[in-house]
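Sequence, please.
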């Protein structure tokens, strides 16, 4: 029964962690299905702030089982740091964590290559998080990756690390002018985790399908977002995995008919980190005000996020490709205090008015936003707990976004804390 997917509808940092935590108490399994510790999910519970990068946000729910699916790339240093940190803060569910035997490992050399590649690209850099995510996925597709299960067989692991480093060392030394990396050192480092990892390793696809058969609730927690998807996002300014809803099937090992609900998380305005097109970006005081009011600084890298008005075309594409059944609108409280709020309802591309994200990247880069101006509100909405308690103009803003993007908004975030939410309909 209920398989629920949560997906970011813009360029990440929409508040997926908070949305996951919101329904967490009723969920039996929370699964990360893509990405790695490039993600940064901040959750505030009882005044305590948790910043999770690799572990699913559902880990903060005392009842459920957290799972790292096969589609995730795992930095073992980060995995055990996060486990220890949460254990020291009394988070009991870390003891139940399961890690897919098929998940790939981010090895130390992936991090080195991520950084030198970005430096080499110079002006054309992607602005990655530098966590080795892209190079780890490249190795996976190139069939040179190291999987979690390889740590259970020392001789296989050593062979695979050696094979993976052979080409890379040529590249590092001859192209990037860096020291070669010793395979035995890498293998020793990875193997130092084997005994701690062994009890966590599972055939997680088997576990999750059995759970769904038994009527359990499984929440597939997306990281990154639609427009960072390697197939559907603003390529090449994307991450190297498939954060979209369909990615949950691949990255967790369940079929599409297992998914009952797909919840898109969308911010009441737009942000992005790193390079790439962003038609509604504000480079003026208004952008700075959104950044300050929304605390828009990266959870993972601390970089100031680029900020701009809500772009309905960006979300409309995500609604279409992900088949969202519901949207969760976050950070509506951050928009309090504007006399009027611009919302992008079209683009002007080469003099022509368009209503969808353009087919080509060149056109997207040149798209000029066309705005509709909605009346703002001044009342503090952070204490609202029902839709009726929101000012009329706030309600009108929400309804207009629904119309523009073509999906219903079922929950609204009015502050960072767990209880700061207006639920319109149940998400499970
Ligand atoms: P994620 O990557 O999608 O999980 O989002 P991040 O955690 O990177 O960024 C979202 C930030 O907004 C976090 O600091 C959250 O605590 C915060 N947040 C989430 N929902 C709301 C909301 O409704 N209002 C406000 N003011 N902050 C929120
Ligand atoms: P959450 O889950 C925002 C961006 C990076 C960069 C691009 C590629 O917190 O929403 P990568 O390190 O993945 O190769 O970087 O993707 N990026 C994110 N931006 N939120 C994220 O995750 C992101 N994960 C990656 O900034 O532009
Ligand atoms: Mg984030």
């Amino acid at each position: 029964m209920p398989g629920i997917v949560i997906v970011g509808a813009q360029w990440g940092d929409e508040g997926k962690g908070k949305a996951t935590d919101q329904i967490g108490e009723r969920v039996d399994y929370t699964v990360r299905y893509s990405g790695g510790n490039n993600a940064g999910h901040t959750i505030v519970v009882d005044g305590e702030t948790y910043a999770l990068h690799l572990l699913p946000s559902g880990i903060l729910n005392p009842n459920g089982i957290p799972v790292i699916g096969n589609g995730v790339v795992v930095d073992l240093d980060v995995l055990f740091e996060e486990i220890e940190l949460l254990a020291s803060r009394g988070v009991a569910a870390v003891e139940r964590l399961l890690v897919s035997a098929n998940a790939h490992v981010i090895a130390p050399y992936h991090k080195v290559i991520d950084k030198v590649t970005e430096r080499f690209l110079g002006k054309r850099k992607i602005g990655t998080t530098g966590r080795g995510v892209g190079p780890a996925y490249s190795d996976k597709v190139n069939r040179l990756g190291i999987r979690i299960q390889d740590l259970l067989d020392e001789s296989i692991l050593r062979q695979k690390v050696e094979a993976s480093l052979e080409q890379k060392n040529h590249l590092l030394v001859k192209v990037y002018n860096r020291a070669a990396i010793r395979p035995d050192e890498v293998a020793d480092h990875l193997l130092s985790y084997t005994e701690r990892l062994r009890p966590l390793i599972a055939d997680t696809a088997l576990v999750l399908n059995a759970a769904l058969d038994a009527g359990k609730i499984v929440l597939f927690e997306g990281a990154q977002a639609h427009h960072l998807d390697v197939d559907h996002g603003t390529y090449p300014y994307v991450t190297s995995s498939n954060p979209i809803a369909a990615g949950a099937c691949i990255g967790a090992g369940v079929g599409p008919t297992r998914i009952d609900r797909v919840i898109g998380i969308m911010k009441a305005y737009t942000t992005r980190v790193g390079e790439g097109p962003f038609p509604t970006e504000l480079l003026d005081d208004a952008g700075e005000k959104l950044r300050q009011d929304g605390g828009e600084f990266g959870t993972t890298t601390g970089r100031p996020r680029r900020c701009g008005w809500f772009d309905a075309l960006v979300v409309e594409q995500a609604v279409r490709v992900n088949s969202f059944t519901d949207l969760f609108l976050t950070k509506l409280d951050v928009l309090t205090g504007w006399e009027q709020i611009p919302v992008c309802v079209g683009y002007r591309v080469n003099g022509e008015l368009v209503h969808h994200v353009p087919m080509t990247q060149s056109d997207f880069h040149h798209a000029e936003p066309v705005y509709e101006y909605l009346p703002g509100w001044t009342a503090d909405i952070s204490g609202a707990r029902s839709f009726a308690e929101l000012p009329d103009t706030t309600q009108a803003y929400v309804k207009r976004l629904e119309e523009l993007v073509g999906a219903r908004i079922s929950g609204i975030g009015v502050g960072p804390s767990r209880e700061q939410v207006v639920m319109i309909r149940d998400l499970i």
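Residues 8, 12-13, 38-41, 126-129, 131, 133-134, 223-225, 228, 237, 239-240, 273-274 surround 6-O-phosphoryl inosine monophosphate (ligand 2) (CB under 6 Å).
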